[in-house]
């Protein structure tokens, strides 16, 4: 009896030790991920001179109201048309446009590859996946020529359209569609459902979580664009928040405040879609 008790205590001790180690790893990872954000938030409350002399600050300062007020009233450009609200609006238009169109195009392309009998669809899929090896920066010259030929310079479409070629979304949707039971297709066929009805009544409801995850990822891609918008637009009315950080000063208190404002929309979006996002990654 004593031996059974000792074995039970040993198992419990190992279980508690493994749980403690797992929690310690999670806490360390959380601190590692949140530390840069907390550092930026704390630095946004200090004066520019403090940041230039002492670098980024871990403790809050006393210039928060002044720095954020300067950001709100900030104006730049040849005619003072670069404003925080204007940059926020441009960032939202671009990010939402990239997110919506990428999700829809990835969904439809994967749907066609899985549920339609297309010649060489395996080759087409891997040809699409090869585009992951060529980031947007490697296609700047050719893409710029295409945008110029279409007359899209200094438009939101010129910034949004080249960012839609995200093969990762097609890959996620394709793998998800392949896991769907074949009985669903057989039942839809017996019920007389065509491709559109099958898409609307069966595929879409079963793909909401995947679509939410792809939407978040594509939104981040559109929101964080910097080089391409700077290259394709010279109009002050098309400035985004990411580009505006350079105007107000990256090593200044107001610059740190603008960085904080810049990361808030993606942060809240991730909070809204977190259930779908994590469910999509875990299934």
Number of DSSP strands? 0
**How would you classify the helix and strand content by structural class?**
mainly alpha
The domain count comes to 2
| Average of pLDDT | 84
Query: Tell me about the biggest sheet?
Result: none
Morphology call: globular
The name CATH uses for the topology of the largest domain is: MetI-like fold
- Reading off the top of the CATH hierarchy, the class of the largest domain is best stated as Mainly Alpha
CATH architecture annotation name of the largest domain: Orthogonal Bundle
Kindly report how far apart the N and C termini lie. Answer: 43 Å
Task: Return residue spans where pLDDT drops below 50 for at least 5 consecutive residues.
Answer: none
Say which CATH homologous superfamily of the largest domain is assigned: MetI-like
Proportion in helices: over 70%
Based on CA atoms alone, the radius of gyration comes out at 25 Å
Q: What is the overall number of helices?
A: 15
Sequence of secondary-structure elements: HHHHHHHHHHHHHHH
Quote the beta fraction: under 5%
Structure description:
- The chain folds into two domains: 2-69, no CATH class; 74-248, MetI-like fold, CATH 1.10.3720.
- Helices cover 72% and strands 0% of the residues.
- By secondary structure, the protein is mainly α.
- It has helices spanning 2-43, 48-54, 64-72, 84-115, 121-130, 140-149, 156-160, 167-178, 182-190, 195-203, 208-223, 227-232, 241-248, 253-272, 274-282.
- Helix 11 (208-223) crosses helix 15 (274-282).
- It contains 15 helices and no strands.
């Amino acid at each position: 009896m004593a031996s059974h008790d000792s074995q039970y205590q040993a198992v419990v001790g190992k279980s508690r030790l493994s749980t403690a180690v797992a929690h310690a790893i999670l806490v360390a990872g959380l601190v590692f991920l949140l530390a840069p954000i907390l550092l930026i938030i704390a630095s946004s409350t200090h004066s520019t001179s403090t940041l230039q002399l002492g670098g980024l600050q871990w403790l809050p300062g006393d210039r928060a109201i002044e720095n954020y007020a300067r950001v709100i009233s900030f104006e730049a450009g040849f005619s003072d048309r670069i404003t925080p609200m204007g940059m926020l609006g441009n960032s939202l238009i671009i990010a939402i446009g990239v997110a919506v169109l990428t999700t829809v195009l990835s969904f439809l392309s994967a749907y066609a590859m899985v549920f339609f009998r297309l010649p060489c669809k395996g080759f087409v899929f891997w040809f699409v996946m090869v585009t992951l090896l060529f980031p947007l920066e490697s296609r700047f010259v050719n893409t710029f020529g295409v945008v110029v030929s279409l007359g899209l310079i200094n438009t939101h479409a010129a910034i949004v359209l080249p960012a839609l070629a995200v093969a990762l979304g097609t890959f996620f949707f394709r793998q998800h569609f392949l896991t769907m039971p074949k009985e669903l297709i057989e039942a839809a066929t017996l019920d007389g459902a065509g491709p559109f009805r099958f898409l609307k009544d069966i595929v879409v409801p079963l793909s909401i979580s995947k679509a939410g995850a792809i939407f978040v990822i594509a939104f981040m891609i559109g929101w964080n664009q910097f080089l391409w918008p700077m290259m394709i637009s010279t109009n002050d009315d098309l400035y985004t928040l990411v580009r505006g950080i350079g105007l107000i000063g990256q090593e200044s208190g107001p610059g740190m405040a603008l960085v904080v404002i810049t990361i808030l929309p993606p942060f809240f979006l991730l909070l809204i879609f977190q259930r779908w996002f994590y469910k999509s990654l875990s299934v």
